[in-house]
Amino acid sequence: MEHKIDLKDRSSLTISGVEHIYSFNDKKVEIRTACGDMVVDGENLDMSKLSIDEKIITVTGTIDGIIYSKTREPQESFLKKLFK
Question: H or E element: which one contains 32?
Fold first, then answer.
């Protein structure tokens, strides 16, 4: 799945490739995208468009930051490493 973000004037953010919305309030949006987890920080945030079929959301308000985090891979257990 393709993932894109389009930010206009720090006030309108369109995100495609959205797989899950963890939380949403007027200061923070936490989502999972096709490219990993994303946090959008800002003020007076509002979800003005949500299309589950197209996997697109549009967030309006004052966008202060967009942060990606790596998807965590499961780690091998200590015992499994020990007996390799």
Answer: strand 28-33
pLDDT of 55-82, one tens digit each?
999 999 999 999 998 755 555 666 565 6
Q: For residue 60, what are its two tokens? A: 């309006």
The number of residues in the chain equals 84
Asked if 17 and 3 count as a contact pair (C-beta separation under 8 A), the reply is yes
Read off the tokens for 3. 């993932």
Structure pTM? 0.79
DSSP reduced 3-state for 10: coil
Nearest by Cα to 44 from 9, 6, 11: 11
CA atoms within 13 A on the CB side of 13: 24
Q: If phi over 0 gives left and psi between -120 and 50 gives alpha, with beta otherwise, what is residue 44?
A: left
Number of helices and strands in the chain (H, E) = 1, 6
